[in-house]
């Protein structure tokens, strides 16, 4: 038996692979050892069968790495849960904020909120230094991540569409509440299959990744069906929403720039400084504000999804040796951080939201002055004011 074990180790070391059977033999021998262990060394056969063999060739990280990630995720969980919870509460209950455009903001906050709901699983695994909660919680973790991540991406795309129609067609392009509700239903009809299919292992599957404290869809299995699945989910969860966001925001920027140019030319013909009565009150031009908002939104989406997209493509079609456990923990952190930032970009920058927050939680000392602005419809009458609506109201 010992000779067989040594032979298995030599072959595994030479080809960078290790079989579950060899893992079991190695685990039973090394449990009492003082040297470094490989990932999954202390797992049962029932747990090992769910873990891609790719991860089992790496040494387990130092305990301090697990604890640091656990502490980081505690902070993300608290900030994200409170921030997105406030957005859902204020935007759902304040009559001045219950508009069609804000329905997308609430849906985005809901996606980010349920993403926070899975973090306690990661925190428990991190402080237990591995795959502690087992396959059921792994599947739940990955399911929530899939639904919340793809749902948030598509909601961002429809927010871009809503702004595009409102700004380019200010009089007849405003989305109604019924249309907004239908589009939100489309988001979830589009999203749910990408969670259910791998959960039931009809197409793809959910497996542990990285330090075995998080789970995602399997992008490492070398089968044709799995590679097609990775290509399909990459296209539907990254390429399509990214294309929509870039297209709509680029159109908005072009529209605002052309409108501002037309205003300046008309003012020049009339020999006046500006056609705006409040030109001097706005130190920043409309095109600069809209460009900044569009760049911020696109950058957030890129920061959130690009790491996962790159890693998935490398795992399915590239050199898997590039995917170390530490590297694959980066996308998870990126997505959670963006879920914390979303409330700042989409809601806290909104003056009417800050006013409502000040009324209900005066101890926050926000001190937002009443602007006297009318309804959302009034604030979107012309493209000279729509640029201030880069954050949906």
UniProtKB/TrEMBL annotation:
Annotated GO CC locations: membrane
Keywords tagged on the record: Chromophore, Disulfide bond, G-protein coupled receptor, Glycoprotein, Membrane, Photoreceptor protein, Receptor, Retinal protein, Sensory transduction, Transducer, Transmembrane, Transmembrane helix, Vision
Region (Disordered): 372-393
CDD domains documented for this protein: 7tmA_photoreceptors_insect
Keyword Membrane annotated: yes
InterPro entries documented for this protein: GPCR_opsins (IPR050125), GPCR_Rhodpsn (IPR000276), GPCR_Rhodpsn_7TM (IPR017452), Opsin (IPR001760), Retinal_BS (IPR027430)
GO biological process per UniProt: phototransduction; visual perception
Family indicated by similarity: Belongs to the G-protein coupled receptor 1 family.
Identification of the protein by name: Ultraviolet sensitive opsin 2
Organism: Anthocomus equestris
